[in-house]
Amino acid sequence: MTLPDPEIARTTRRRFVVAGAGALTAVPLLLAACGGDDEAKPAARGKSRFAFTDDRGVEISLDGPVERIVAHEYAALALWDYGVRPVGIYGSVPFDEQPLFGQLDLSGVESVGDVWGEVNLEALAALRPDLVITTYWPSEKLLGGIKDDKLERKMTAIAPIAGIHAQVPATTTIEHFEELAGALGRDLRAKPVVAARKRYERAVQSFRTAVEAKPGLRVMAVYADPEALYVGKSQDYSDLREYQAWGLELVSGKGSDPYWEKMSWENADRYPADVILYDARATAPTLDKLADIPAWRRLPAVEAGQLSPWHMEEGVSYNLFAGHIEELAARIERSETVA
Q1: Considering the chain, what is the average pLDDT of its residues?
Q2: 3-state class of 308 per DSSP?
Q3: Fewer CB atoms inside 10 Å of the end CB: C or N, the chain?
């Protein structure tokens, strides 16, 4: 496996903290010490028995309902609209630094990790989860936010993990999360769920119309920092795969490495692009920071102000992805060929 750099590979925020070697052997003691927390709110009202096969082919079968869930930040967002409330979340930044959480009521939800790849095993065990839910990235054979199989094994000793494929088209990822929500006993015909689907369908149609009205417009998705420009490979990102299928002309990175093609700033103009999607995650450099890079400022799309945020890992729910589609469609409508 070859990645561009540990700090900017898929998550662009890889600051690793290695779990203690004794964490796995300590799990039974941690669980025993955590008895009784009767005041904690259940994460979801599950059926009397839970059975689900995740996108790795792992079969999960529990005799009782799933009431206590710990989720990766994107999995938590994916299931929120179905009424699933985790008791714990792990992610890439603290809750108050994650803009995606701005509209969510996270009272009573504990953080069990706020750096990519790091999960606090003691905090995880203390929550006594029935299930951990995250995404699955087959290019790296990793689960979302779990840095390696060693940490995965330690977490699995605490609770089974369900992974949802994040590198298929985004609609498929959303459908798989919806299937999981159904397995958890949620009502898939509830009014908010139906409304979210309809919003998504309207957004897709508007996107197709916007693209058809701008033939030849080329869009490139990137991560950028002072060291280099990284051009996203459309086949490795669920949202880019959808945009391309809906008619958008995407400039895709090349090469054998997953996710990105890395190029020096001297070669940053290799691919002409009229619109640039810039990495907008909480840990990525801001546009103000990028403006300090002369070669960035000289890119035609940047000079023309034809930029739009790229929410590369966040197409996990109908509402969330609909917002991204609407945002990009509006940018396309306002853009012209400049490169």
Answers
A1: 87
A2: strand
A3: N
Q: What is the pLDDT of residues 32-80, one digit of tens each?
A: 434 444 333 444 444 578 999 999 999 999 999 999 999 999 999 999 9
Cβ atoms < 10 Å from Cβ of 31:
15
Sign of CA dihedral 175, 181, 183, 188: negative
Report d(CA 10, CA 92) in Å as an integer: 12
In angstroms, the Cα distances linking 298 to 167, 270, 294 are 32, 12, 6
Distance, CA of 242 to CA of 239 (rounded, Å): 5
Residue 100 exposure: Cα atoms within 13 Å on the Cβ side: 28
- Dihedral angle computed from the Cα positions of residues 115, 121, 122 and 124, in that order, rounded to the nearest 10 degrees: 90
171 Ramachandran zone, left/alpha/beta (phi>0; psi -120 to 50):
alpha
Tokens of 231: 């051009």
Compute the 3-state secondary structure of the chain and give helix, strand, coil in percent, each to the nearest 5. Answer: 35, 15, 50
Could you tell me the two tokens for 37? 């927390």
> Is 0.90 topped by the overall pTM?
no
Residues counted in the chain:
339
Residue 161 DSSP class: E
Beta bridge partners, 88, equal: 70, 110
CA distances from 114 to 71, 80, 96, 97 (A): 12, 19, 10, 10
> Which residues is 94 bridged to in the sheet?
none
DSSP class of residue 19? P
The answer to whether 186 and 44 are in contact (CB under 8 A) is: yes
How confident is the model over 118-167, as pLDDT tens digits? 999 999 999 999 999 999 999 888 999 999 999 999 999 999 999 999 99
Q: For residue 118, which of 150, 74, 141 has the smallest C-alpha distance?
A: 150
